[in-house]
Hints:
The structure is a homodimer. By secondary structure, chain A is of the alpha/beta class. Chain A has 12 helices and 9 strands. A 6-stranded parallel beta sheet of chain A has the order 3-2-1-4-5-6. Chain A has a 3-stranded mixed beta sheet with strand order 7-8-9, with helices on one face. In chain A, helix 2 links the parallel strand 2 and strand 3. In chain A, helix 7 packs across helix 10. The longest helix of chain A is centred in the C-terminal third of the chain and has 27 residues. Chain A is elongated and about 65 Å long. Chains A and B meet through helix 7, helix 8, helix 9, helix 10 and helix 11 of A and helix 7, helix 8, helix 9, helix 10 and helix 11 of B.
Amino acid sequence: MKPIEDCTVGIVGMGVMGGAVAMALGRLAPARLLACDTDGGAVGAALADGVIQEAFADAAAMLGRCDLVYLCVNPSALPGFMEARMRDFKSGALITDVAGVKGGIAKVMENGLRGDLDYIPGHPMAGSEGGGYARARNCDFRGKNYILTPLKRNRPENLAYLKGLIRRMGFGRITVTTPEDHDRKIALSSQLCHVIAASLIDCEADTGIARFGGGSFEDLTRIAMLNAPMWTELFLENREELLARIGRFGESLDALRALIAGKDAAALEARLLAVRERRAAMAEEENRGQQNSCPGILDDALNTLPGSWET
Amino acid sequence: MKPIEDCTVGIVGMGVMGGAVAMALGRLAPARLLACDTDGGAVGAALADGVIQEAFADAAAMLGRCDLVYLCVNPSALPGFMEARMRDFKSGALITDVAGVKGGIAKVMENGLRGDLDYIPGHPMAGSEGGGYARARNCDFRGKNYILTPLKRNRPENLAYLKGLIRRMGFGRITVTTPEDHDRKIALSSQLCHVIAASLIDCEADTGIARFGGGSFEDLTRIAMLNAPMWTELFLENREELLARIGRFGESLDALRALIAGKDAAALEARLLAVRERRAAMAEEENRGQQNSCPGILDDALNTLPGSWET
């Protein structure tokens, strides 16, 4: 791959993530930054904002020029898009995506990709309430986690190149793992959390409850401001893993409920103490990840050290 | 009641809330600020920090001097404390507390209070992860909700006086309601949220899950860093209401699970959309409360308008 300064970059899909990726890549000064979206309003706004240099309604007209392509479409649209547009990509192009479920696309791309292309599936662990291009500026990448689930066929130099870009976009820890491991863990750390937030709102009709909020309720339900079509897709795409997680969460909830119902103060306190200690250990892991994140002055140095923070 | 500048104020219990209340009241320059705690280390630290002017190990020696007393002890300790110390209070003293469950103390104080005292139960909806005096500085009152559950016997002028102080301490919306209404709503907005956070940590043993966090998991589990003895008390004191809330949350969770298991995309999306709309309506209520909060330059004006923001 050429240095990013010499690359024409294409973004497919100008929603909250497409917009945020365009802004972050734009700061790295690629030769040309293009974007396409069937929603002309979104790419039009990005063009007017100076976030991209050319806007397309149709991917076919754009892909042939792009050395690097970021697919920022809903996960269920990915396989169909790749199948329909396979012939349109520029030879040697590096392609990546941002889908929140990784198992499906991995299976399709491992064997179905044109031989002269490279496709590295990824998942930037960032977002913004609501969604849509208008929210892209609220989507902060700095210090955030990024997961890559490479295919067996990926070229090592392309993987190193993409990691360098990701760091320069501001992300913190990059974790390389299998699609299966990603989908199993994300079912807890992201999808189950959204199911819980939605259930917490669903079980209380009185919007005046906000007057009794002390921060907990707000923190637990902020992500209930979700993009309903996209989360419907994510829940259904990762259905088996998510159902298993809901089941295990329900067991933990039942166990706590039983201790409360049984007025078992000693056992309840012991369980809450164990929870506190485990959460503290998780926070340590979080902080360790944050310390790895030094966007800004170290950008160039980081880019020369691919894999150094891989975990 | 005298102006706060002429009052001797006593804080009972120098944990995170006692410490934060002492700091906030201290900024209003009371004539004298005293505190007692059986933990000499906590009051000693507050004394060394200049947060209080006198430290006591025993409440009996302090209470006789105090025009205003803030009881910042664990909820289960309140009735016993009041019974044991009833004779020690200064005649005409105004007493309030910060306990997170209100039903129990209301019953005791409605009939059991010395005739020359006034006791207004309250609940500042603020806190800090962990607890203890060392965390008091992290406990930010600005714009936060405050609930008061007055007794029938409370003198209106004392209620107005306390509201004025609460506003000058930086709190946003003050809601006046019954202990029953408080306990029912707080079971959702606070206690259920803590049960959920604890269950979410309880159901995942791998602390490395932090590498897969994108903010949701962190936001939903931050409050799992709870003070285990205090939350054990709160859960058990408000057991009936909390169990009812856990039950209703479980029903909402089951309903979402069934839609996911049944791959019912249309119904799932509709439910998520309804959730999003309800959460947006709750956020509007939240913001309305925040707009009512103007700590700082308006303090004195606010103090002359008791009840104007009561809802």
